[in-house]
């Protein structure tokens, strides 16, 4: 049962107390970082504390799409948003319980079991880290641990460039793509031809997902988003219902006057 001071399971709190943290320097750390990532995260000035996770088993409601109409499936979009937010929030709560400054290498997964086609587990997992420089502030503008899905190598490069991660930002759109009519199919049989209704549907859905991700970045007061990915999956809803999911890491300069110098072009002349 989910309980405890931060809404975390009791066993999660027991596990967290055994991890290395500011209040428990003798504990062990756990990490899903590769060896190279682990060393680069430490080189960047952070100590891995432990793996943190958040989980939500969610019942996804039903919504029927109109056969010949492109349309967003609002009920399904909201379900995917809320379930991911629950998982992310619980992962952040575990990181906060450890006194971490952030979570790196975050992965978002959706697992389905045999309990029913409308049930899915939404899982967020990553490695909590603490900055060795206690005078620096690496948390978000809202005082929460930062979250990032960047690899250890990209995290190190980002900090070296004078930027820091704020949070993972996401945009989701579950969209019903209209079916092709019989006469339309017959009219283009054997021809090369664009399918305008399909093109428009996928275009609209991707744009909605990207726009919502950008809105989250604005709310985080970010300067930009790096490592953006756009994923397209059906999740068992049928061939004409697709989720478009945009996700990336919102970043901000570590100094207000920060400026990244472009690389210099060096020409060499052969004798």
Question: How would you describe what is shown here?
Answer:
- This protein is of the alpha+beta class.
- The chain has one domain: 2-Layer Sandwich (Translation Initiation Factor IF3), CATH 3.30.110.
- The chain is 30% helix and 29% strand.
- The chain is built from 6 helices and 8 strands.
- The chain has helices spanning 10-17, 35-43, 74-97, 152-160, 182-187, 196-219, and strands at residues 46-59, 71-72, 102-111, 119-131, 146-147, 163-176, 224-233, 241-253.
- The strands form 2 sheets. Strands 1-4-3-5 form a 4-stranded mixed β-sheet. A 4-stranded antiparallel β-sheet has the order 2-6-8-7.
- The longest helix has 24 residues, at 74-97.
- 36% of the residues are buried.
- The mean pLDDT is 84.
- Belongs to the UPF0145 family.
- InterPro entries: UPF0145_dom_sf (IPR035439), UPF0145_YbjQ-like (IPR002765).
């Amino acid at each position: 049962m989910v309980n405890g001071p931060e809404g975390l399971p009791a066993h999660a709190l027991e596990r967290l107390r055994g991890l290395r943290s500011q209040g428990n320097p003798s504990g062990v750390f756990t990490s899903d970082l590769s060896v190279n990532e682990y060393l680069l995260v430490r080189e960047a000035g952070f100590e891995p504390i432990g793996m943190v996770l958040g989980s939500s088993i969610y019942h996804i409601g039903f919504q029927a799409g109109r056969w010949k109409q492109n349309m967003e499936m609002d009920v399904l979009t909201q379900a995917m948003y809320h379930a991911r937010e629950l998982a992310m929030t619980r992962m952040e709560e575990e990181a906060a319980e450890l006194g971490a400054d952030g979570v790196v290498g975050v992965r978002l997964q959706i697992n389905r079991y045999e309990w029913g086609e409308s049930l899915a587990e939404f899982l967020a997992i990553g490695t909590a880290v603490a900055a060795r420089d206690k005078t620096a502030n690496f948390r978000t503008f809202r005082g929460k641990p930062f979250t990032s899905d960047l690899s250890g190598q990209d995290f190190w490069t980002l900090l070296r460039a004078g930027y820091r991660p704020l949070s993972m930002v996401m945009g989701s759109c579950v969209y019903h793509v209209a079916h092709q009519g019989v006469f339309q199919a017959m009219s283009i049989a054997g021809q090369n031809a664009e399918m305008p209704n399909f093109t428009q549907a996928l275009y609209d859905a991707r744009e909605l997902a990207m726009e919502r991700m950008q809105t989250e970045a604005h709310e985080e007061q970010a300067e930009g988003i790096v490592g953006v990915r756009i994923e397209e999956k059906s999740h068992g809803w049928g061939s004409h219902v697709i989720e478009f999911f945009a996700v990336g890491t919102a970043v901000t300069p570590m100094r207000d006057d920060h400026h990244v110098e472009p690389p210099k072009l060096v020409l060499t002349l052969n004798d």
